[in-house]
Amino acid sequence: MNYHVLTLFPEMILQGLNTSITGRALEKGILSLEAINIRDFSENKHNKVDDYPYGGGAGMVMAAGPVYRAYEHTVDSIKKSCLNDNMEKKPRVIYLTPQGKVFHQTIAEELAKEEDLIFLCGHYEGIDERVLEMIVTDYISIGDYVLTGGELPAMVMIDAISRLIPGVLNNDVSAEFESLQDNLLEYPQYTRPEEFMGKGVPEVLLSGHHGNIDKWRREQSIIRTAKNRPDLLEKANLSKDEKKILEN
Ligand code: ADE
């Protein structure tokens, strides 16, 4: 997977993703990441990228020109790096905005299948609508709150997508079986010591009986989802017996 992030704060993206699991995957070459500074495409004496909004109102709007040129430069460099040079499919361009579709695990799964992804991070009061209409394929929000820019949302998405790419996590099975699989939250986890400040570990986990452990974990997932995310539970596939757990 090759990520291309159009931003006014490239160092934020590079520093944020060059550590931990994504950092290791970048080092291994399973992922690649470039942060393209929109300001480099300003063509303005003072490298200005924003201007007053037509019609008045508070704040500044990012101008269409620098964003479009940064996009064209990125698509050109992707084309050049393709072996056959006539890349038929244009890469998806994701604009991070609170007005977009809310990000979800299934969107991460779908995007993880792409070869290249371009993220467009806005600042100020947004980006001139005309360039968005020309280049953006997906409008995505990471939740119903307003952040100061699209960089953190882009990093959130890149993290969630990357862990689904084979080889990024050490244990490929865990990406499949973790939280939100089948619309259930993950069960509680414990590690040594067996007793911590007077609190023990659930007996079943020490039993070595894998059937009972799996059953207990599934029950815990159901109980936890019912308590914290009843909206998800409605979409989960529960057996008759499992539905009974909730009646108690
Ligand atoms: N930019 C500002 N707030 C955002 C949000 N909640 N999601 C995506 N992009 C944003």
Tell me, what's the shape? elongated
**What sequence of helices (H) and strands (E) makes up the elements?**
EHHEEEHEHEHEHHHHH
Strand-residue proportion: 5-15%
Share of helix, binned: 25-40%
Structural class: alpha/beta
Low-confidence stretches: none
What features would you describe in this structure?
The protein has 248 residues and is an alpha/beta fold. The protein has 2 domains: 2-162, Alpha/beta knot, CATH 3.40.1280; 177-245, Trp Operon Repressor, Chain A (Orthogonal Bundle). 40% of the residues lie in helices and 15% in strands. The protein has 10 helices and 7 strands. The chain has helices spanning 10-17, 20-28, 64-81, 105-111, 129-135, 151-162, 172-177, 210-228, 230-233, 240-247, and strands spanning 2-7, 32-37, 50-51, 61-62, 92-102, 116-120, 138-141. It has a 5-stranded parallel β-sheet, sandwiched between helices. Helix 4 (105-111) links the parallel strand 5 (92-102) and strand 6 (116-120). Helix 1 packs parallel to helix 6 and helix 3 runs parallel beside helix 5 (129-135). It is elongated. The structure holds adenine.
